[in-house]
Amino acid sequence: VNNLSNQVIQTDQKTIEKMLHYYQDYKIDKVPQGAVFSAKIPGCTITAYQSGKVLFQGKNSEIESAKWGKQETKAPKITKRSSSNDKYAPPGNIEELSIIGSDEVGTGDYFGPVIVAAVFVKKDRLQLLKNMGVKDSKSLSDKQICEIAPKIIDTIPYSLLILHNEKYNKLQAKGMSQGKMKALMHNQAILNVMQKISPIVPEGILIDQFAEPSTFFKYLEGEKVIEGNIFFSTKAEGLHLSVAAASIIARYAFVKEFDQLSKKAGMPLPKGAGEQVDHAAAKLILKLGKPSLNSFAKLHFANTEKAIRLASSIAGH
Ligand code: MN
What we know:
Blueprint: E1 7-10, H1 13-22, E2 27-28, E3 35-41, E4 44-49, E5 53-57, H2 61-66, H3 76-86, E6 99-105, E7 114-121, H4 126-132, H5 142-155, E8 158-163, H6 165-173, H7 178-197, E9 204-208, H8 213-219, E10 230-233, H9 241-265, H10 275-288, H11 303-316
Parallel strand pairs: 6-9, 9-10
Antiparallel strand pairs: 1-5, 2-3, 3-4, 4-5, 6-7, 7-8
Helix pairs in contact: 5-9, 10-11
Bound molecules: manganese (II) ion.
Protein backbone atom coordinates (compact mmCIF):
# COMPACT_ATOMS: atom_id res chain seq x y z
CA VAL A 1 0.00 0.00 0.00
CA ASN A 2 1.35 3.40 -0.99
CA ASN A 3 1.41 5.62 2.07
CA LEU A 4 0.60 8.68 0.01
CA SER A 5 -2.79 7.22 -0.78
CA ASN A 6 -3.69 6.78 2.88
CA GLN A 7 -6.39 8.99 4.34
CA VAL A 8 -7.30 9.44 7.98
CA ILE A 9 -10.48 11.07 9.21
CA GLN A 10 -11.62 11.76 12.74
CA THR A 11 -15.29 11.02 13.23
CA ASP A 12 -17.83 10.12 15.92
CA GLN A 13 -19.44 6.96 17.24
CA LYS A 14 -22.62 7.52 15.23
CA THR A 15 -20.77 7.81 11.93
CA ILE A 16 -18.75 4.70 12.73
CA GLU A 17 -21.99 2.81 13.30
CA LYS A 18 -23.26 4.05 9.94
CA MET A 19 -20.00 2.97 8.32
CA LEU A 20 -20.21 -0.42 9.95
CA HIS A 21 -23.63 -0.86 8.40
CA TYR A 22 -22.52 0.52 5.03
CA TYR A 23 -19.50 -1.80 4.77
CA GLN A 24 -21.29 -4.75 6.39
CA ASP A 25 -20.81 -7.10 3.43
CA TYR A 26 -17.14 -6.18 3.01
CA LYS A 27 -15.97 -6.74 6.59
CA ILE A 28 -12.77 -8.73 7.02
CA ASP A 29 -11.90 -10.93 9.97
CA LYS A 30 -8.43 -9.64 10.64
CA VAL A 31 -8.92 -6.51 12.75
CA PRO A 32 -6.00 -4.62 14.29
CA GLN A 33 -5.86 -3.88 18.01
CA GLY A 34 -8.13 -1.03 19.01
CA ALA A 35 -10.20 -1.25 15.84
CA VAL A 36 -13.99 -1.51 15.67
CA PHE A 37 -13.97 -3.09 12.23
CA SER A 38 -11.99 -3.47 9.02
CA ALA A 39 -13.53 -3.74 5.58
CA LYS A 40 -12.07 -4.23 2.13
CA ILE A 41 -13.73 -2.88 -1.00
CA PRO A 42 -12.16 -2.65 -4.45
CA GLY A 43 -9.27 -0.19 -4.25
CA CYS A 44 -9.64 0.58 -0.55
CA THR A 45 -9.31 -0.94 2.89
CA ILE A 46 -11.19 0.82 5.68
CA THR A 47 -10.30 0.48 9.36
CA ALA A 48 -12.33 2.28 12.02
CA TYR A 49 -10.86 2.69 15.50
CA GLN A 50 -12.55 3.08 18.88
CA SER A 51 -10.96 6.51 19.13
CA GLY A 52 -13.12 7.66 16.21
CA LYS A 53 -10.21 7.63 13.82
CA VAL A 54 -10.85 5.94 10.47
CA LEU A 55 -8.04 4.89 8.17
CA PHE A 56 -8.56 4.50 4.42
CA GLN A 57 -5.80 2.71 2.52
CA GLY A 58 -5.46 2.13 -1.21
CA LYS A 59 -5.80 3.96 -4.49
CA ASN A 60 -9.45 4.83 -3.94
CA SER A 61 -8.94 6.00 -0.38
CA GLU A 62 -9.44 9.65 -1.20
CA ILE A 63 -12.79 9.08 -2.90
CA GLU A 64 -13.93 6.69 -0.20
CA SER A 65 -12.92 8.85 2.78
CA ALA A 66 -14.57 11.91 1.20
CA LYS A 67 -17.92 10.16 1.69
CA TRP A 68 -17.50 10.33 5.44
CA GLY A 69 -15.67 13.45 6.46
CA LYS A 70 -12.70 15.72 6.30
CA GLN A 71 -9.09 14.62 6.30
CA GLU A 72 -7.62 14.98 9.77
CA THR A 73 -5.51 18.09 10.08
CA LYS A 74 -4.04 17.77 13.55
CA ALA A 75 -0.55 18.98 14.39
CA PRO A 76 1.92 16.11 13.93
CA LYS A 77 2.85 16.02 17.62
CA ILE A 78 -0.72 15.41 18.73
CA THR A 79 -1.26 12.83 16.02
CA LYS A 80 1.86 11.00 17.13
CA ARG A 81 0.84 10.98 20.76
CA SER A 82 -2.69 9.78 20.09
CA SER A 83 -1.46 7.07 17.73
CA SER A 84 1.05 5.77 20.28
CA ASN A 85 -1.79 5.58 22.80
CA ASP A 86 -4.06 3.92 20.24
CA LYS A 87 -2.40 0.60 20.88
CA TYR A 88 -3.77 0.79 24.42
CA ALA A 89 -7.35 1.39 23.23
CA PRO A 90 -9.54 -1.66 23.97
CA PRO A 91 -10.62 -3.66 20.90
CA GLY A 92 -14.25 -3.42 19.85
CA ASN A 93 -15.00 -6.98 20.92
CA ILE A 94 -13.39 -6.67 24.37
CA GLU A 95 -16.62 -7.48 26.22
CA GLU A 96 -16.46 -11.05 24.87
CA LEU A 97 -12.84 -11.72 25.84
CA SER A 98 -11.18 -13.31 28.87
CA ILE A 99 -9.83 -10.28 30.67
CA ILE A 100 -8.09 -9.22 33.86
CA GLY A 101 -9.66 -5.94 34.91
CA SER A 102 -8.57 -3.55 37.64
CA ASP A 103 -10.02 -0.55 39.40
CA GLU A 104 -9.38 1.52 42.51
CA VAL A 105 -11.38 3.35 45.12
CA GLY A 106 -10.74 5.88 47.88
CA THR A 107 -8.39 8.23 46.06
CA GLY A 108 -10.73 11.20 46.37
CA ASP A 109 -11.83 10.47 49.94
CA TYR A 110 -10.04 12.26 52.77
CA PHE A 111 -10.80 9.49 55.23
CA GLY A 112 -9.95 5.88 54.56
CA PRO A 113 -7.50 3.85 52.52
CA VAL A 114 -6.81 3.56 48.82
CA ILE A 115 -7.91 0.17 47.57
CA VAL A 116 -7.18 -1.54 44.27
CA ALA A 117 -8.75 -4.78 43.09
CA ALA A 118 -7.95 -6.85 40.03
CA VAL A 119 -9.99 -9.83 38.88
CA PHE A 120 -9.83 -12.35 36.08
CA VAL A 121 -13.05 -13.05 34.24
CA LYS A 122 -12.82 -15.88 31.77
CA LYS A 123 -15.30 -15.55 28.97
CA ASP A 124 -17.24 -18.61 30.13
CA ARG A 125 -17.90 -16.79 33.44
CA LEU A 126 -19.31 -13.64 31.88
CA GLN A 127 -22.92 -14.80 31.93
CA LEU A 128 -22.61 -16.06 35.50
CA LEU A 129 -21.40 -12.64 36.64
CA LYS A 130 -24.18 -10.94 34.73
CA ASN A 131 -26.68 -13.19 36.51
CA MET A 132 -25.15 -12.19 39.86
CA GLY A 133 -25.97 -8.59 39.04
CA VAL A 134 -22.44 -7.45 38.29
CA LYS A 135 -22.55 -4.11 36.50
CA ASP A 136 -21.16 -0.62 36.80
CA SER A 137 -20.71 -0.20 40.55
CA LYS A 138 -21.72 3.46 40.39
CA SER A 139 -25.27 2.31 39.72
CA LEU A 140 -25.22 0.00 42.77
CA SER A 141 -25.97 0.97 46.37
CA ASP A 142 -23.57 0.05 49.20
CA LYS A 143 -26.10 -2.55 50.27
CA GLN A 144 -26.15 -4.16 46.82
CA ILE A 145 -22.34 -4.01 46.70
CA CYS A 146 -22.17 -5.91 49.99
CA GLU A 147 -24.50 -8.59 48.64
CA ILE A 148 -22.78 -9.09 45.31
CA ALA A 149 -19.11 -8.77 46.30
CA PRO A 150 -18.89 -11.92 48.48
CA LYS A 151 -20.39 -13.94 45.61
CA ILE A 152 -17.81 -12.59 43.17
CA ILE A 153 -15.00 -13.34 45.61
CA ASP A 154 -16.18 -16.95 45.82
CA THR A 155 -16.37 -17.32 42.05
CA ILE A 156 -13.36 -15.76 40.38
CA PRO A 157 -9.63 -15.23 40.94
CA TYR A 158 -8.89 -11.78 42.34
CA SER A 159 -6.36 -9.71 44.23
CA LEU A 160 -7.23 -6.97 46.68
CA LEU A 161 -4.66 -4.44 47.89
CA ILE A 162 -5.35 -1.99 50.69
CA LEU A 163 -3.06 0.98 51.28
CA HIS A 164 -3.86 2.13 54.81
CA ASN A 165 -3.57 5.75 55.82
CA GLU A 166 -0.33 5.44 57.84
CA LYS A 167 1.52 3.89 54.91
CA TYR A 168 -0.11 6.24 52.41
CA ASN A 169 0.98 9.27 54.45
CA LYS A 170 4.49 7.90 54.78
CA LEU A 171 4.85 7.39 51.03
CA GLN A 172 3.30 10.75 50.31
CA ALA A 173 5.66 12.51 52.74
CA LYS A 174 8.58 10.88 50.93
CA GLY A 175 7.37 12.60 47.76
CA MET A 176 5.45 9.80 46.06
CA SER A 177 2.47 11.06 44.08
CA GLN A 178 -0.93 9.47 44.42
CA GLY A 179 -0.72 8.59 40.72
CA LYS A 180 2.39 6.56 41.32
CA MET A 181 0.84 4.78 44.30
CA LYS A 182 -2.12 3.84 42.13
CA ALA A 183 0.08 2.64 39.28
CA LEU A 184 2.14 0.47 41.65
CA MET A 185 -1.02 -0.99 43.18
CA HIS A 186 -2.74 -1.74 39.86
CA ASN A 187 0.45 -3.33 38.57
CA GLN A 188 0.87 -5.46 41.70
CA ALA A 189 -2.77 -6.56 41.87
CA ILE A 190 -2.71 -7.61 38.22
CA LEU A 191 0.60 -9.46 38.68
CA ASN A 192 -0.95 -11.28 41.65
CA VAL A 193 -3.92 -12.40 39.57
CA MET A 194 -1.68 -13.46 36.68
CA GLN A 195 0.31 -15.58 39.07
CA LYS A 196 -2.88 -17.10 40.49
CA ILE A 197 -4.26 -18.13 37.10
CA SER A 198 -0.94 -19.24 35.56
CA PRO A 199 -0.43 -21.08 33.20
CA ILE A 200 -3.62 -19.51 31.85
CA VAL A 201 -2.88 -16.16 30.23
CA PRO A 202 -5.64 -13.58 29.83
CA GLU A 203 -6.55 -12.38 26.35
CA GLY A 204 -6.16 -8.87 27.63
CA ILE A 205 -5.67 -6.64 30.66
CA LEU A 206 -8.02 -3.70 31.06
CA ILE A 207 -7.16 -0.92 33.47
CA ASP A 208 -9.69 1.72 34.42
CA GLN A 209 -7.64 4.65 33.21
CA PHE A 210 -6.43 7.24 35.71
CA ALA A 211 -3.36 8.44 33.80
CA GLU A 212 -2.02 8.40 30.26
CA PRO A 213 -0.54 4.97 29.50
CA SER A 214 2.90 6.53 29.02
CA THR A 215 2.65 8.09 32.50
CA PHE A 216 1.44 4.83 33.98
CA PHE A 217 4.48 2.95 32.66
CA LYS A 218 6.82 5.75 33.71
CA TYR A 219 5.58 5.33 37.28
CA LEU A 220 6.57 1.66 37.07
CA GLU A 221 10.18 2.19 36.04
CA GLY A 222 12.40 -0.19 37.98
CA GLU A 223 9.48 -2.49 38.85
CA LYS A 224 8.46 -5.84 37.48
CA VAL A 225 5.84 -4.64 35.00
CA ILE A 226 2.74 -6.46 33.74
CA GLU A 227 3.03 -7.85 30.24
CA GLY A 228 0.43 -8.81 27.65
CA ASN A 229 -2.30 -7.04 25.72
CA ILE A 230 -2.73 -4.07 28.02
CA PHE A 231 -5.64 -1.72 27.46
CA PHE A 232 -6.60 1.50 29.18
CA SER A 233 -9.96 3.17 29.13
CA THR A 234 -11.86 5.61 31.28
CA LYS A 235 -15.24 4.24 32.40
CA ALA A 236 -13.79 0.77 31.78
CA GLU A 237 -16.34 -0.78 34.16
CA GLY A 238 -18.80 -0.31 31.31
CA LEU A 239 -16.54 -2.09 28.82
CA HIS A 240 -15.86 -5.38 30.54
CA LEU A 241 -17.38 -7.13 33.54
CA SER A 242 -13.90 -7.78 34.98
CA VAL A 243 -13.47 -4.07 35.71
CA ALA A 244 -17.04 -3.85 37.00
CA ALA A 245 -16.32 -6.82 39.31
CA ALA A 246 -12.99 -5.31 40.42
CA SER A 247 -14.76 -2.06 41.19
CA ILE A 248 -17.40 -3.87 43.26
CA ILE A 249 -14.81 -5.80 45.27
CA ALA A 250 -12.78 -2.64 45.88
CA ARG A 251 -15.85 -0.71 47.00
CA TYR A 252 -16.93 -3.58 49.24
CA ALA A 253 -13.55 -3.54 50.97
CA PHE A 254 -13.73 0.24 51.23
CA VAL A 255 -17.15 0.12 52.89
CA LYS A 256 -15.85 -2.40 55.43
CA GLU A 257 -12.65 -0.44 56.10
CA PHE A 258 -14.71 2.70 56.51
CA ASP A 259 -17.00 1.03 59.03
CA GLN A 260 -13.99 -0.07 61.05
CA LEU A 261 -12.45 3.40 60.94
CA SER A 262 -15.72 4.97 62.07
CA LYS A 263 -15.85 2.50 64.92
CA LYS A 264 -12.26 3.32 65.87
CA ALA A 265 -13.06 7.03 65.68
CA GLY A 266 -16.18 6.57 67.78
CA MET A 267 -18.11 8.68 65.29
CA PRO A 268 -19.37 8.31 61.72
CA LEU A 269 -16.80 9.48 59.16
CA PRO A 270 -18.15 11.06 56.00
CA LYS A 271 -16.91 10.11 52.52
CA GLY A 272 -15.51 12.54 49.99
CA ALA A 273 -13.51 15.65 50.77
CA GLY A 274 -16.15 18.35 51.30
CA GLU A 275 -17.07 20.63 54.15
CA GLN A 276 -18.68 17.84 56.14
CA VAL A 277 -15.32 16.13 56.12
CA ASP A 278 -13.59 19.25 57.51
CA HIS A 279 -16.02 19.28 60.41
CA ALA A 280 -15.66 15.59 61.14
CA ALA A 281 -11.87 15.90 61.06
CA ALA A 282 -12.02 18.89 63.43
CA LYS A 283 -14.17 16.84 65.78
CA LEU A 284 -11.69 14.01 65.58
CA ILE A 285 -8.79 16.34 66.41
CA LEU A 286 -10.63 17.60 69.49
CA LYS A 287 -11.49 14.06 70.49
CA LEU A 288 -8.29 12.11 69.81
CA GLY A 289 -5.66 14.76 69.10
CA LYS A 290 -4.11 15.98 65.87
CA PRO A 291 -1.59 13.10 65.48
CA SER A 292 -4.47 10.64 65.37
CA LEU A 293 -5.44 11.92 61.90
CA ASN A 294 -2.46 10.00 60.52
CA SER A 295 -4.31 6.72 60.90
CA PHE A 296 -7.66 7.99 59.60
CA ALA A 297 -6.97 10.37 56.77
CA LYS A 298 -4.86 11.38 53.79
CA LEU A 299 -2.97 14.18 55.49
CA HIS A 300 -1.87 16.10 52.39
CA PHE A 301 -5.47 16.91 51.44
CA ALA A 302 -6.45 20.55 52.07
CA ASN A 303 -9.02 19.25 54.59
CA THR A 304 -6.26 18.84 57.21
CA GLU A 305 -5.47 22.57 57.40
CA LYS A 306 -9.14 23.48 57.40
CA ALA A 307 -9.85 20.98 60.17
CA ILE A 308 -6.97 22.28 62.30
CA ARG A 309 -8.29 25.83 61.95
CA LEU A 310 -11.82 24.73 62.74
CA ALA A 311 -10.69 22.72 65.76
CA SER A 312 -8.71 25.63 67.25
CA SER A 313 -11.58 28.05 66.69
CA ILE A 314 -13.99 25.63 68.39
CA ALA A 315 -11.52 25.03 71.24
CA GLY A 316 -10.98 28.75 71.65
CA HIS A 317 -14.67 29.45 72.25
MN1 MN B 1 -11.78 3.86 38.41
